[in-house]
Design goal:
172 residues; alpha/beta; 2 domains; four-stranded mixed sheet; 19% helix
Length: 172
């Protein structure tokens, strides 16, 4: 125990060079100035700014948001609503690594008419933003009462997006 006390005593009696004290003091001043001038500005990541839907009244539209395409798939431009509570899919050509938007359509009529759904996706600020893609799908009614849906996957054609993203859906 006395050996430990002797070592501690030797450390406290050593002279510290004045240059080391000046360097430590300067680093402390620089750190203080940086801390005083540092400003943190929170940024809200809004992603999709909104979805605008127009319809003749025969379908409801739900935007399920954005995702990244995992596998390249060819286009499937038409689908028929299933008569049961199942789901059918439609998509434009999907390329692995691109962003896509997922939109779900629910038919509220019992018709067997073909409806044209046009999904337009724009990127960036301003009244219109930059056009990314216009995808058109033919969605055919089930002919009877149905709880089925059609989910459309729309490839934006972009691997990088700038917020906000605006999605327009028109059905005729």
């Amino acid at each position: 125990m006395s050996n430990l006390r002797a070592k501690i005593s030797q450390v406290t009696t050593k002279k510290v060079p004045i240059l080391a004290l000046v360097v430590v003091a300067m680093l402390g001043m620089v750190a203080g100035v940086l801390a005083a001038n540092l400003t943190v500005t929170p940024t809200a990541n809004t992603g999709e700014i909104g979805t605008y839907h127009t319809s003749t009244g025969s379908m409801t539209v739900t935007d399920n948001g954005l995702g990244v395409v995992a596998n390249t798939v060819g286009a499937v431009a038409s689908a028929t609503f299933p008569t049961s509570g199942n789901n059918n899919n439609a998509n434009n050509a999907l390329t692995a690594g691109h962003w896509f938007d997922q939109v779900t359509f629910t038919d509220t009529l019992t018709d067997s008419t073909a409806h044209t759904a046009t999904v337009t996706i724009r990127n960036g600020t301003g009244p219109a933003g930059t056009l990314l893609v216009i995808a058109t799908f033919t969605l055919t009614g089930p002919g009877v009462s149905s709880t089925g849906t059609i989910t459309a996957y729309v490839d934006t054609g972009a691997t990088s997006l700038t917020s906000p993203i605006t999605v327009y859906v028109a059905i005729t």
